[in-house]
Every structure is written in structure tokens, then in C-alpha cells.
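Attaching the record inline, Q. Sequence:
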Amino acid sequence: MLPASPGKMAKSTTPRHSGLVRLTHWITVACFFALAITGYLIVLSHPRFYWCETGNVNMKPLFNLHLPSSRDTVPTGYGYVLPDENGWSRYLHFEAAWLLVLTGIVYGIAGFWSGHFRRDLLPERGKRSWGDYWRAFRGVKDKDAGSYNVVQRTVYLGVIFVLFPAVIWTGLALSPAFNAVFPFFVDVLGGRQSARTLHFFVSDLLVAFLVVHIVMIALNGFWTRTLEMITGRAKPSTTEDTESTEGTLVAAEVENVTVEEGI
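Structure, as predicted:
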């Protein structure tokens, strides 16, 4: 009986995600859902958005969501007022935001230190052309099936280094204490109401990313991908299994022939 192929054993035990990446991923998931739910509850207290420093019901809004409000002081045109969930939602929003910031700092330091960003997320040299992006959009897979394609890498980098910092910055700009200590970071956005409007749009982009992310996971095997992010182990692909099995059969056949010739 022949021993298992070394190549197969190596592939079946190769980690796909490090422990730190998995830990920060699931903490981020929990924080993100908490922030999304509480954020939209906070919006319902005043579903109007303004630009510049101030905004109230006596001013013309930049745009109106035309949703019922949880405050009876906000005219919405509806004949009822939603339950006011503004209190607990603001507390949870604040706590989840700071946990997300701390998690992001740990992930960022570890990502630079270990080379995770350069190795796994930065588009590879020679694979950054418009043709590479177009092939990725069409779903043409790379030879390295376990790697992210150029579109995925670019989107992940954009989320990590653009959208998340932007949502944190615009969120902090809504704090009167932050505004008092760092007025420049609020003024450059156009004021606190401008920051609120930008915070809303950036949050929507992150929610859109989450929806697409979940859809892509579902299309590629939801439970398989989820287990990979839990256990860190990637299941060998069918192609790899087939190649490994064929190699074992060929080796067995060669051994049988050698034995027969010896006899």
C-alpha cells in the first residue's frame, strides 16, 4: 500500500487565513451589523440631511428620505410616530464604533508587519492591466484559485484604506467634543451636517459592499467559505484532488510493473 501523496497532504493542511485575520474579521462582522442597525435607527430620529454646519426642521434639507420619524417634532407627512429607539442605539453605536476602531488598528499593524497587505491584497505585478480587470469581471479564474483576483484585491484595499477610515472620520466629526478639540477635521468636511451626510453615504457604500460580499460567498459555496474563515483551512479543490489521485494511481502502476519485471 502506497503512502498518501506528500503534495496532497500539504495542500489539505495549508492555511487560507491566519488566526488574527479570522479573529478581527468576526469582530468586525459583529461591530458592523451593530453599527448598521443602530445607525439606521438613529437616522429615523431625523430622516433629513443638510449641508454645512447647521440643520433643522425650519431649513430646506439637501435631501429627504421621506421616512416616518421617531420624533414628533420632525414633520414627515405620516400620521404616526415610530417608537423612539434613539437612546440605546446611540450608546451601542458608540461602543461598537470604538471596538471597530481598536480592531482595525490591530489588524492594520499586523497586516503591515506580516506582509499580509502586500502579499494577499496588493494587486500582483503584471496583473494590474485593464485586461486583467476585465477578465476578473468576466469571472475568468486565475491559475492560483486560492488567491483573490485583481478586482477583489482592489475592492478590499479600497474598503480597508478608504471607506473604513472615511466612515470613522465622518463619524468622529459628529461629536461635539471632537469638534472642539480638532475643528479642522470637521471644517474641512464642510461642517457637522456635511459630515453627517457624508457619513450616511459612506455607510451605504459599506452596506452595499457587504451585500455583494455575501452574494459572492454564496455563489462560491457559502458554507465552504464560511468554514474557511472559521477554521482557517481551505478545502482542496476538485482539480487538486483529481491530480493527486491520478499521481497516486500512476505511482502504483509503476510499482506493480517494477515488481512483475523483478519476478
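The longest helix spans residues 86-114. The chain is about 65% helix and 0% strand.

More tomorrow.
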